[in-house]
C-alpha cells in the first residue's frame, strides 16, 4: 500500500518535471503572474524570399516557445537589406539602445566583429547569423585576440562549391561560366570564386569567364550581358551567390534569348536550389535541366508536416502577393530552430536567478544544448 503511494508520488513528480522541460506547462510561472518582457531583435530583408521566411518562422517560434521563467518575448523586427552597412548600424542600435537579449540577422563575422568593436558589452548578446552559407574562417592563429562569440546557422560555403564542382566533373564539362550577384559584397564573391575554382581544378575543369550581375542592372543591360556570354563563352553556366529575385530575372532573359535550350546547362547554388521546391512560379516551372545542390532535411516527420501546415497559413496571410504555397525551405527551419535554441538558453539562465539574462560564454552554452530541431540535431 505504502509502496504504491510512494511510487505514484514519484511518478507525479517525474511527469511534472517532464512537462516543464518539454515546455508545455507553466511549471515556474503561473499564468496570472505578470511577465517581464524580453526584447529580441530580428533584422530581415523582406524583399527576399529567404528574409520573409525568417520573419514568419521566428514569429512562429515566439508563439510556440513558452518561457518557464515568467518572461515573454517582444520581437523588434527591422526590415533591412541583407549584408549592408545599414544592417550593421541597425544591429548596433538594437544592442545599444533597445536592450535586446539576442538578435537574429544575416551578418557576416566581419560585420559582427565591427559591432563588438563599437560596443564591447555586446559580446554578451547572442547574435545569430541566418545566412544560408558562409565562409568558414581559417583556424585562429596563436597569440591573436579571441574571435567574437558568434553562431552562424549556415553551411560551409566550401561544401556547396565542392558539390557544384562534383556535378560539373560528373558531366566532364571542362570549362564553365560563373554568374554571381553583386550585393556590395565584392570580397566575399571573390573568395567564393576562388574556392569554386580550386574545387573545379580537382575535376579537371575551370572557370573560363565570370561576370557579376546586379538587381540594379536595367533589364536591357542584363540581356546584353547574357548575349555577350552566349556568344563569347562556353555553354555551362553556374549561378552562385544569387538571390532568388535576381535568378528569376536572369532565367527569364536567358529563356527569351534561347539560352535555356538543349546544349546549355545551368547549375545553381544553394540560395536557389533550396527554394526551387517551394516555388511554383512560371519562371521556375519551365526550367528544364536546372541542376543544383539542396540541403537535406527530414520532410516525412510529423513535426515537419505540422510546421509546414501552419507556416503555409501564416506565410500566405502575411505575404499574399507571393507566389507558390508558401512552403517552408531550410531557411525557415533553421530560423525556427535557432530561436528555439536561444530561447532555451535564456530561459534556463533566468530560471537560475539571472534576471538580466546575460548568458556568459553563450555560444558554448547554446551549442551544448543538443536540440532536435526541424532542420536536424543542432
Ligand atoms: C552598449 O550596449 C549597452 C547595452 O547592451 C548599453 O547600455 C551601452 O550604452 C552601449 N554603449 C555604447 C557606447 O553605446
Ligand atoms: C559586350 O561585348 C562587347 C564586345 O566585346 C563589349 O564592347 C560590350 O561592352 C559588352 N557589353 C556588356 C554589357 O558586357
Automatic annotation (TrEMBL):
The keyword Transmembrane applies. InterPro entries: ANF_lig-bd_rcpt (IPR001828), Ionotropic_Glu_rcpt (IPR015683), Peripla_BP_I (IPR028082). This is Glutamate receptor 2.4-like. The lineage of its organism: Eukaryota, Viridiplantae, Streptophyta, Embryophyta, Tracheophyta. It is found in: Membrane. Keywords: Membrane, Signal, Transmembrane, Transmembrane helix. Residues 57-353 form the Receptor ligand binding region domain. Residues 1-21 form the signal peptide. It comes from the Eukaryota. Its main location: membrane. Pfam families: ANF_receptor (PF01094). The gene is LOC127148706. It comes from Cucumis melo (Muskmelon). Gene3D superfamilies: 3.40.50.2300. The keyword Transmembrane applies.
